[in-house]
Amino acid sequence: MATLRRIEDRGAIDIAHRARQTAGQVFRYAIITGRAERDPTGDLKGALKSKKKKHHAAITEPAEVGRLLVAIDNFQGTVVVKAALQLSALLFPRPGELRAMEWEEINWEAQRWELPAEKMKMGMPHMVPLSCQALEILRDLQRHTGRGRFVFPSARGASRHISENAVRVALRAMGYTNEQMTAHGFRAMARTLLDEVLGFRPDWIEHQLAHAVKDPNGRAYNRTSHLEGRAEMMQAWADYLDELSNQ
User: Is there a contact between 134 and 90 (Cβ–Cβ < 8 Å)?
Assistant: First the structure.
């Protein structure tokens, strides 16, 4: 606790919480390898100050979404960053999950992106159905980066993926401020319009956002839950974005 308090006292609340989580991982590994008997970080739950809620700026008005999509289509940056922008809108994953996308995670036959549990915030495997539009972008990008591990390799070397600044800087280059649109904002954009305009089931939307969704008995849905319906939803979403862009 004294160690975490030193971080907390300098105002780094989020880092203090991450430090507690990381310490817990170390202790759990220690238990598995016979170096410790228990993980004491669980006893500190609620002891730290609450993390500040971050509200990521997002565009949710249909006409403005259309203008954003046109700006992305006309983006003059690299092929890799442009594809990252396009797939941020089409797939609305967490930005870190998109940046770290690997070619081996793309199931071309099943037409979906399959993320392993260790890459997910909730610690569970996740499936993202790929629309025809998303598949076309990936096939085009494969000609440029398909020989490497990452779908979006860094310009500084294919051994690592693009940085968290890539999409953010691209949005600024297109004229969008941090108060108007963020990389994370594509998620809020999709959640709002899929619900309020397209009328899809909220649990499908939340599941596709990789949020914790439970069935009526309180059990977490597995990664294949409502997969057929979610595939239809993702295709309808891609078609809707095309419509907004054309308008």
Answer: yes
Q: Which amino acid is at 149?
A: R
Give the residue carrying structure tokens 């969704």. Answer: 213
pLDDT at 222: 62
Residue 217 confidence class, pLDDT cut points 50, 70, 90: low
Domain 62-246 has CATH 3.40.720.10: no
Q: Is the pLDDT reported for residue 48 higher than 70?
A: yes
Catalytic sites, residue numbers: 94, 121, 184, 187, 211, 221
Q: What is the pTM of this model?
A: 0.75
Residue 180, number of CB atoms within 10 A of its CB: 15
